[in-house]
Amino acid sequence: MFHRKGLFIMSLNETIDIPKETLESWQVLLDVMAEECVVPTALIMKAELPDIEVLLSSNSKGNPYKTGDSECLFGSGLYCERVITTKSELLVENALKDTEWDKNPDIELNMISYLGLPICWPNDEVFGTICLLDSKENKYKEEPRNILKKFQEYIEDYLSLRISVFVGNDKKELAAKEARCEESFTKIETILQQVYKS
After folding, report:
1. Residue 55 within a domain
2. Domain CATH for 109
3. Domain tally, the chain
4. How are strands ordered across the β-sheet holding 51-57?
5. Is residue 3 part of a domain?
6. How does residue 49 score in pLDDT terms, banded at 50, 70 and 90?
7. Which residue did the predictor score with more confidence, 44 or 168?
8. What is the pTM of this model?
9. Which of 19-33, 56-70, 135-149, 169-183 has the lowest mean pLDDT?
10. Within a 13 Å sphere around the CA of 136, how many CA atoms are in the beta-carbon half?
11. What is the residue range of 106's domain?
C-alpha cells in the first residue's frame, strides 16, 4: 500500500491473490526449470513493498532460499532490485569478477551468478521477478534464457487473466485471455520437454 495526496492506494499485489493451485503448478514448473537449467536455484520473487519476498523457491539441492524469506528491496544491492527498478533482464555471469556486483548480499549465500526477468501486471506495475541463481560462474546460454522468458510470459499472461476476472471483464475477453494463458503454458511445457529429451 502506498500513500498519495492523503489517499491510501492498494497495489495489485495486495489486491489480487494467486490461488494455491496455481502456486502449486508454478512450483512444479520452477523445480523442472532449475533441474533442466542445471542450477541450484530458481525463484519467483514478489514485491511486497518495501520488501521483496520469495514467493516460490525450487526444491533443488544447494538452494539456500526458502519460500517466505524476505529482504528490504530498495538500497539492498540485490540483483532483483535492479530488475525491478529497470524492468529489464539482468545477467551477472560472476559477481566476484564484476565490481558492480562484488558486494551483492547473495554472495554470502554463495550465489555468484544471476539471470532474472521482471514480472509485470498488465498496467506495467511490477509483480516481482523470476530468476535463476548459481554458485558458479554461468553465462546462461540460449536454452536457459529461453525457458526463463517463456515462464515469464506465462506468468504475465496469467496475471492478465486474473485481473480480468477481478474487474469482471466480459466472457469473450476472458475466453481470449484464458486461451492465451493456455498457449503460454503449452510453450513452456514444450520447451521443457525438448530439453528433457536432449
Report:
1. yes
2. 3.30.450.40
3. 1
4. 70-72, 51-57, 41-48, 126-134, 113-120, 90-92
5. no
6. confident
7. 44
8. 0.84
9. 169-183
10. 4
11. 9-197
